[in-house]
Amino acid sequence: MLVSYDYIVHLANYSDGVLYVLAGLFVIAVAVIIDRMWYLRRAILRGGSIVRRMAAMGRVNEQDLAALRDFAGRMPEGLLLDTALNHMNDADHAGMNSRMDEAIMLVAPRLDRRMWVLDTIVTLAPLLGLFGTIIGMFHAFSILATPGHAPAEVTGGVADALVATACGIFIAMIGLATFNMLQNQVRLIIHQLETIRTMVLNRTDGAPVVVPKPMDNTKSCGE
After folding, report:
1. Maximum pairwise Cα distance, the chain
2. For labelling alongside 189, which of 39, 95, 197, 220 has CA 20 to 30 A away?
């Protein structure tokens, strides 16, 4: 059944404007979700590509790091690789490790930027919806004081009042599901940064590169 514009306005006014606030919260939540999903997805794809490229390298020199940094661009991996490149020639290899740890700590707050807004909406939306329903209940039961009221007016008013709670719960469900998904993506990016840090350290520590020998399948197991 199609819902007319006039009926939507009626529902919003019935909750004394709470539905308008819920609509605003929904728009803000969608904006945060799109922004974070776009940024985090790009970071995951870029980080995964860098991990695969470094896994194929036995040793990494300055040119390799510079190429990987340019490939990372303004993604979180770019700051980490730039830090590694600037401290690659330090005599103390532990100092390079410490600098890269610091770079990860500086990058981490960028990953969950504006996520607190989504977390707040998840908590606030059901409460606002319940508040709008309570206001609607006041309007519905005030009809009982009107002489000659019809019972259908009361039950219809109660049904209209419950729309605010339904909207608040719907917004909370959408926000909670996407918030948990985005948090999982943040953890994945942090793991990728830690992996890149370890791979850079292992490939710039000056130790000889051990190349695995291919297995000889021509000999039998008894030989």
Report:
1. 104
2. 95
Measured CA to CA, the distance from residue 102 to residue 89 in angstroms comes to 18
Q: What is the mean pLDDT of residues 113-131?
A: 92
CB 131 within 8 A of CB 25: no
Number of C-alpha atoms within 13 angstroms, CB side, residue 190? 15
Instruction: Say if residues 97 and 196 touch (Cβ distance below 8 Å).
Output: no
User: What does the pLDDT look like over 2-22, one tens digit per residue?
Assistant: 556 666 666 666 667 788 889
Contacts of residue 7, Cβ cutoff 8 Å, sequence gap at least 6? none
Is the pLDDT at 223 greater than 60? The verdict is no
At residue 150, the 3 state secondary structure works out as coil
Three-state SS at 208:
coil
pLDDT at 89: 76
Q: Is 116 helix (H, G, I), strand (E, B) or coil?
A: helix
Residue 53: Cβ-neighbour burial (10 angstroms; 0-12, 13-18, 19+): middle
pLDDT per position as a tens digit, 145-170: 666 555 555 566 677 778 888 899 99
Residue among 41, 34, 43, 67 nearest 53 (CA): 67
Tokens of 100: 């890269």
